[in-house]
Amino acid sequence: MNTKVTIAGVEFKNPVMTASGTFGSGQEYSEMVDLNRLGAVVTKGVSAVPWEGNPTPRVAEVYGGMLNAIGLQNPGIDVFIERDIPFLTKYDTNIIVNVCGKTVEEYLAVVERLNDQPIAMMEINVSCPNVKEGALAFGQDAKVLEHVTAEIKRAAKKPVIMKLSPNVTNIKDMALAAEAGGADAISLINTLIGMKIDIDRKTFALANKTGGFSGPAIKPVAVRMVYDAAHTVKIPVIGMGGIGSGEDAVEFLLAGATAVSVGTMNFVDPMTTIKVVEGIEAYMKKFGHKDIQEIINVVK
Fold it and tell me: Using DSSP, how many helices (H) and how many strands (E) does the chain show?
């Protein structure tokens, strides 16, 4: 049974990877999860300088998922290169580094530092607030998205994945903008914007008021957007949003995704990624598929 997929010339032993921000850089999970069994580990977002993140409380459980307003807290690229990359290189899995920034220059600073590191790809988080455009996310304006993609591609020596925000009017326009900017692949969806109000305290559950909504409840939205994107662009699509089982992952693959990322469900069950890998294999066996390409983009 062949579960290998290739994205921008990079081969993955299977199409299952971790979603940024839900797996750290794998250190904590490695005590329970064999990272060698994953197609890739996608790291938490890394910025040019340390980010403190948002004030607490910044996580809230909601029906069918969770809200988070962590604010991309991270120790910065220096610590990441010194601590996290050496840890991940011990494993037989692709390393994909998620990059965040508040200006194009900040993105480029991280990209240039990563160019000579032993990583497979970079995933660019364009859901970051663009400080020069009134905090509107880079991924919410097609022209801005195309521009930042082109700038990053000009500087990057590794393949570039643009991670798209679902908080837009038309995901097809954003997918086309990333492709026009030269992206090697796109990943989607990032979190939806949500809010929870504590009715006992009569205030917001999150200090930030709003947060990113993720988990099983967003899967139908994610599948629809992945299908739309995959049938609009020619570059590979990595699908994510509410995946908790092999069956969930297969749905994204059938819709046109070349690979999938597992996010929020890692918090529910740290072994979810392995169960998704095994679930895809069980599905292929059940239907007599010898190669995973037989199920990718089957539903037109």
Answer: 9, 16
